[in-house]
């Protein structure tokens, strides 16, 4: 018998769940509030640049499920390799640090020799425990989540100052959350996996994976789900359509794949028999670091190509990081010129302060900060695009892996949850979580 299942949220997690459920014979309807699939992995696109893609998420060679999808959909030819080097800034002095090169590490001037050697040995120790230190799977890491923070772990394996310029920038430069508020497991998993990994982007944006994953499901874009309730032995999904009209539709089951605070809100009216107290408490306590990305077009040569430049140090900096991508700018007369598209992310306090303020004010405040991270940043960068993600990065707080593992184990229909907040703020973790939610409903393999 075919079961009708609603998937609420068409990001990486929701569309992964949709794919599995369609394969298991469910009739699936995806409700997505935005006008396209992909969620936080969805790029913006502008016709003046080639490729026209803006925010372009990185896929790393140690993402097994994403690698399998790229092969399945024949997208290998769309992969563009980018540099895995990180440039770390200390009071305006920027130094490259390759995660692949022990020699680079031994020459690195921002940490003492003793810290560098200690860091190298700690990395080797964690690499030996790779299988346990899975960045994406709390069922593997929960037993290591003993309440210690990444900052405590860092100060144990090196000195606190060593941590500030060796590991902290690699955590905060990618996710912007404070290492003092993050589980040590997150830091250890990064150490275990970063070395020797290759980084790529998908030429036309990562949302192609969500779009392909949703094939076989009905997709309702521009449909914001307002609430779920129990109805006639099933689940009624209430929504507001793009035209502003409200409606409701009945299903046998539902996968809720929105960020956790939204999931808590729209399932708030469901009984404890449907959403157990532990799951509800888990959803209600997840916190997020918002993200504000400001991009500029500058002439090539002004900064290194395909580079990740991050602020070192324990303080929350005015500007956290910059990422550079090569683009061709197409002028109004059709003329073409090579440019660098530079993405900049303010630090935590500035991001929170500038969110919702409008791009004019955001550029006015961020542009004077560019030289704090790259002292030779060009004088007249062309502001290009601002993008906000209020639910940017779910924070893997100490104990979070243990709590999420419990919810994963206890999840069963008719309503299940998924999203990167179960594991780590990565598309790979979102995929795993979506597959698991689908398996909890359909009784498939749990991977
Ligand atoms: C700035 C930034 C850069 C990142 N860079 C990388 C990177 O390089 N590599 C990487 O692996 N990861 C990266 N990530 C993390 C990655 O984007 C996320 O981990 C992943 O996309 C989360 O997927 P998700 O499906 O769990 O959630 P989401 O992508 O948030 O999907 C949830 C979906 O639910 C929809 N929704 C919300 N409310 C409703 C509602 N009421 N009704 C219907 N639909 C609703 C949303 O519109 C959204 O489409 C980055 C994140 C950010 C913010």
From TrEMBL:
Stretches assigned to the Amine oxidase domain? 12-441
Listed transmembrane segments: none
> What SUPFAM superfamilies has UniProt attached to this entry?
FAD/NAD(P)-binding domain
InterPro entries the record matches: Amino_oxidase (IPR002937), FAD/NAD-bd_sf (IPR036188), Zeta_carotene_desat/Oxidored (IPR050464)
Name the Pfam families on file: Amino_oxidase
PANTHER family in the record, alphabetically? Answer: PROTOPORPHYRINOGEN OXIDASE
Name under which the protein is recorded: FAD-dependent oxidoreductase
Please give the organism.
Nocardiopsis endophytica
């Amino acid at each position: 018998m075919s079961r009708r299942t609603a998937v609420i949220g068409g990001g990486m997690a929701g569309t992964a769940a949709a794919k599995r459920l369609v394969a298991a014979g469910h009739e699936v309807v995806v409700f997505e509030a935005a006008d396209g699939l992909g969620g936080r992995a969805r790029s913006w696109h502008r016709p003046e640049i080639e490729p026209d893609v803006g925010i372009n998420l990185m896929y790393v060679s140690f993402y097994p499920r994403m690698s399998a999808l790229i092969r399945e959909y024949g997208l290998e030819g769309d992969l563009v390799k980018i540099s895995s080097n990180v440039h770390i800034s200390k009071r305006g002095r920027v130094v490259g640090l390759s995660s692949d090169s022990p020699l680079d590490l031994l020459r690195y001037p921002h940490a003492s020799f003793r810290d560098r050697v200690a860091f190298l040995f700690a990395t080797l120790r964690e690499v030996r425990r790779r299988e346990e230190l899975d960045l994406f799977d709390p069922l593997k890491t929960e037993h290591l989540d003993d309440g210690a923070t990444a900052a405590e772990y860092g100060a144990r394996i090196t000195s606190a100052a060593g941590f500030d310029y060796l590991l902290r920038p690699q955590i905060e430069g990618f996710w912007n959350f404070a290492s003092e508020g993050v589980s040590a497991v997150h830091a250890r998993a990064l150490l275990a996996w970063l070395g020797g990994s290759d980084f790529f982007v998908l030429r036309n944006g990562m949302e192609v994976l969500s779009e392909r994953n949703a094939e076989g499901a009905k997709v309702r874009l521009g449909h914001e789900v307002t609430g779920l309730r129990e109805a006639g032995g099933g689940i009624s999904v209430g929504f507001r359509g793009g035209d502003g009209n409200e409606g409701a539709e009945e299903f046998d089951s539902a996968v809720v794949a929105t960020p956790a605070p939204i999931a808590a809100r729209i399932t708030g009216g469901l009984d404890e028999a449907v959403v157990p107290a532990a799951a509800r408490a888990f959803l209600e306590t997840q916190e997020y670091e918002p993200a504000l990305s400001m991009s500029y077009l500058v002439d090539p040569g002004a900064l290194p190509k395909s580079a990740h430049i991050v602020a070192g140090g324990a303080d929350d900096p005015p500007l956290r990081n910059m990422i550079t991508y090569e683009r061709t700018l197409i002028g109004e007369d059709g003329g073409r010129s090579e440019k660098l598209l530079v993405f900049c992310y303010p630090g935590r306090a500035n991001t929170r302060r500038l969110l919702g303020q409008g791009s004019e004010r955001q550029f006015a405040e961020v542009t004077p900060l560019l030289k704090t991270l790259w002292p030779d940043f060009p004088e007249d960068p062309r502001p290009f695009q601002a993008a906000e993600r209020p639910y940017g990065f779910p924070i893997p707080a100490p104990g979070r892996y243990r709590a999420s593992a419990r919810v994963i184990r206890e999840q069963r229909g008719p309503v299940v949850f998924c999203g990167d907040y179960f594991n780590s703020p990565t598309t790979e973790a979102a995929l795993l979580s979506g597959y698991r939610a689908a398996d909890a409903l359909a009784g498939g393999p749990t991977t």
